[in-house]
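Dear Dr. K.,

Following up on our conversation at the group meeting, I've run the structure prediction for ER membrane protein complex subunit 2 from Hymenolepis diminuta. I'm pasting the input sequence below exactly as I used it, so you can double-check it against your construct before we proceed with anything downstream. Let me know if the numbering doesn't match what you have in your notebook.
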Amino acid sequence: MNDALQDLRVIRENNLRESTKVVDRWITSIQPKLHRLGQEKWIVLEQVLIAALDVHDLETAQICLNHLRKRFPESIRVKRLHGMLLEASNQFEEARSLYKEIIDAESTDIISRKRLIITFKSQGLYNQAIEELNKYLKLFMADVEAWSELSDLYLAQGNFKHAAFCVEEMILANPHNPLLHERLAEIKYSEGGTENLELARAYFAHACRLNPTNVRALYGLLLVASNLSGKLSEKTLATLTEENNSSAVQQQYSLPQSAKQASNNFDSKRENHQLIVYAVEKLRIIFGNAGLAAPIAIVNNCSIKGRTLSSGKTRQQKGDMESGCLPEAFERLSVTSEKNQH
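The predicted structure tokens came back this morning:
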């Protein structure tokens, strides 16, 4: 029995998920000698109960719960374990009633509130899950995982506007995480419309700025810039690369409120082309470093290597792209994204 107890201690202390092993040790070694465990018996019973639920051994879970309820009849922790057993038995209404009883007695019980939300989600009752999750976030606004879950629920319903708001709250908590900027950009891109595509471009750009090797963000930047400027031909891309930048008027980029303002504030097509060139070159470098062949569309339609540039300034721009530096338009996009966060 000592070896079995030691195995359970190691699993418990290292937060390992080895439920089958835990239940096996319980049945073969610990259960027949449970009365000899002393005070460690209660934590072992809880560990075995949760492991039994994980492997859907409801009989073992019920045995452990009976021991715990007999010793701690009014314990909120034991009641919560009872609720989990009811969930595993598909008795969701009874589980919800029990969780609500716990919440009424202890309104700050985070775990019980989350278990209540899970009962709704398990049955596909997304509206009720969203309602309870909003109540939870009014009390615990700093819970980033809850904002992420709420965003997923809104996306499951196709509610992009509210999903984007949830991701914005996550960005406030962790503004230097490129995955969050990428996620918000994807939501805005999926929502569609010129204004949302402009926002998606800004957030994809900022995600690439935070992590220049983020392939998903680079592809997103390539897609959204292509949608905003139209499909590029090889001739157009070559002309853009070889053109003397001194003939182009540099203008400060700002996120427009409408497509009309966008056309008045800056040369949108040119800046989109510059971002496409940057994204394509970065993707080619990443694929090359990984020993993989770049997608045919990038090789055939967006190749700019081997071109002779007509001015020193343009050569410098190409060198920046190949070395991984951000083009000027790209910098303006990402900086604007930062300002909008504040």
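Two things stood out to me. The chain has a mean pLDDT of 79. The two ends are 59 Å apart (CA to CA).

Best regards,
J.T.
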